[in-house]
Amino acid sequence: NIAAGATCTVTVTSVTAAAGGAFTNSTGPVTGTIGGATVTGGPATATLTSVAAPTVTKAFTPTTGAVGAPATMTITVANPAANTVAITGGAFTDTYPAGLTNATGATVAIAPAACGGTASVAAASSLVVSGLTIAVGGTCTITVTSVQGDTVGPKVNNTGNVTSTNAATSPGASATYTVNAAGAPAVTKAFAPATIAAGGNSTMTITVANPSTLVAMSGTGFVDTYPAGLTNAAGATAVITPAAGCTCDTAALAAGSLTAAGLNIAAGATCTVTVTSVTAANGGAFTNSTGPVT
């Protein structure tokens, strides 16, 4: 019952929409009685705009790599087709799992430029993004180069929640980067000269190379047991070079063997173990292997 010249207001709290879009709502006809006569007014119409959460995808390229090898991480944030307005203030903090870090010199970019926003990989193991504007039907792509695995195993990484100033919150997206052990050392071996007179001497050279250009190889070693009839001559020595790239090392000679241990080989470097005066008292062909290099 509305007094003459007065108004009544009906308020419904917590009207919601499960999906994004523009929802136009009408009261339908409004009827009442004035002075015994039935009157009809309206309807009144209003539009509620609901902004659905952004959709998020994430990927590593490549999906696998050796310890220390770089990968590109790409995160795409999209404004769903149902939305009729831009998503503003898009933000998230992607905290990496243990063993996944931003490599030295890593960079981050947001595209296209219309997305605006800021992105930072200043921290060792996270990506922080804020201020994205995602146009109606548009996407924003955040690309990080280079992410690297520091320990072996799968690294499952989630972006964390993607929030905004006007849309529902997205749980983000996950991707897995699998980190493999670095490649095995490359080993070569030679005698110089390769032919000697019985009782003569030859120099034996073994070169161990670190195939990774990103991380050092540590604790490398081997035991080279000579075949019968091949020995280290009296006064033979073993030398490891270069000193700068092969630290914390030892090389020991027994009568019929060479033991090398503790080689720390810099990324992309080689260590050479040289034994002077290997000899054979008798004639014959002596095939000699270093044994496994681990």
| Shape, principal axes of CA atoms | rod-shaped
Question: What is the string of helix and strand elements?
Answer: EEEEEEEEEEEEEEEEEEEEEEE
Given as residue ranges, the uncertain stretches (5+ residues, pLDDT < 50) are none
What structural category do the secondary elements indicate? mainly beta
Q: Can you count the beta strands?
A: 23
Query: Helical residue percent?
Result: under 10%
Biggest β-sheet: count, sense, barrel?
A: 5 strands, antiparallel
Strand content: over 45%
State the end-to-end distance: 92 Å
Mean pLDDT: 92
| Number of contiguous helices | 0
Radius of gyration: 36 Å
Polypeptide structure, described:
The chain is built from no helices and 23 strands. It is mainly beta. The protein is 0% helix and 53% strand. The strands form seven sheets. Strands 15, 16, 18, 19 and 23 form a five-stranded antiparallel β-sheet that branches.
Name some characteristics of this structure.
0% helix; 4-stranded antiparallel sheet; single chain; 53% strand; 5-stranded antiparallel sheet; 294 residues; mainly beta
Concise overview:
The protein is mainly β and 294 residues long. Helices cover 0% and strands 53% of the residues. It is rod-shaped.
Fold blueprint:
Layout: E1 21-26, E2 30-34, E3 37-41, E4 45-50, E5 55-61, E6 64-66, E7 70-78, E8 87-95, E9 100-111, E10 118-120, E11 126-134, E12 139-149, E13 153-158, E14 174-180, E15 186-192, E16 201-209, E17 217-225, E18 230-232, E19 238-241, E20 246-247, E21 250-254, E22 257-265, E23 270-280
Parallel strand pairs: 6-14
Antiparallel strand pairs: 1-4, 2-3, 5-7, 7-12, 8-11, 9-12, 10-11, 13-14, 15-16, 16-23, 17-22, 18-23, 19-23, 20-22, 21-22
